[in-house]
Amino acid sequence: MKNVIRGACGLLLWLSLSLFAIGQRDQHPLTARSPQETLINQFVHGHTYISAKFDFFGNGVKIGTASFQLSRLSGTKVRFQLTSGPVNYIFVADRRWTLDIYPNDKTYDRLTAYPNPIPRARNAEGNVPYLLPLAVGYLGVPASGPNFKQTAKDSESATYQSTVSAPTGTAVYTFKIGNDGRLLQYSRHLQNSTAGWDFFATSYSFDPIPKQEFSTNPPLGYLPYAFTDAPAPLVTHQALPAVKSLSKKSINSIVKNGDWMVVMTDELIPSGLKSGLAALPKNLHLLGLCLPGRIGLLKGILPAGTQAYEMSEASFDEIGVAKTPQFYLLRNGKLLQAWIGFDRANSAQWIKEVIASIRDK
Questions:
Q1: Is the pTM of this model over 0.85?
Q2: 147 and 292 co-located in one domain
Q3: Neighbours of 348 (CB within 10 A)
Q4: CA–CA dist 222, 111 (Å, integer)
């Protein structure tokens, strides 16, 4: 059975997450709700790549650095890193996964990006201003509302402030936005107090960024801090995502026509599965998929001549393999019915369900 470890921090976080959501253009409050938001939006969409570095201040003293990277090539992706004293934290997100990386203890957390690609609660244990992306990036606090006002302007930028009531007192957020839409300063302080933190931009660049910088696969040599969410199986009528085997064979091209039973396995094969597969209707096409190194086990239970391919962990995640064995009944590449697990004692009932699904759908 497959192991299911499957199965930020401050502005930067606000900025990187806001940019992420703006890039997706689907469910974010920062969508032309004010001239400043429009300006930021235009800045983001004017560049395929954005890299920025910031100095990080706490209570008026420089205590670290931060950086973020954004790529809009083949889907929006962000990477954020904060270094401050003992804190060394990296956050990476794409449309499907979020990855929190802790280099000091070589651990990571990997979770699905749904409903929002946000850093997870473990960050609150350190010195990272973790809650900001929630308040600012997703609730749209900073750049709109009756408390939002311009406080300064020069030839290259404008500065704005917004006040927000909190249990610990009134928080004052300060933004300095360049005329082209780039964020130059992002600060949060308690009203009438020096307590708080600031991010000041030190550089921006727009050069291509290697795609491996945005990988949401667990880094080599790191251990999971906790079990990640198991991928959700496909739902009825959902098309099989576009995936390829390790040998670069398109799985979608195989199942695009007709009725197919896709069998997905790992290292443990339940007793009786071979005979169960042999009992499936003869007019039902069969396809076997497995994780690397398991192809011999898989072919040992499939009828002679059945196509079988090795898949990466990421591909199994993509097609929603939560546990193995898992079965997808597809018609023209779309799901009719899914099953997880196999019980030899109930194999006859399973065959009846397969036949009924083919007949009734």
A1: no
A2: no
A3: 10
A4: 15
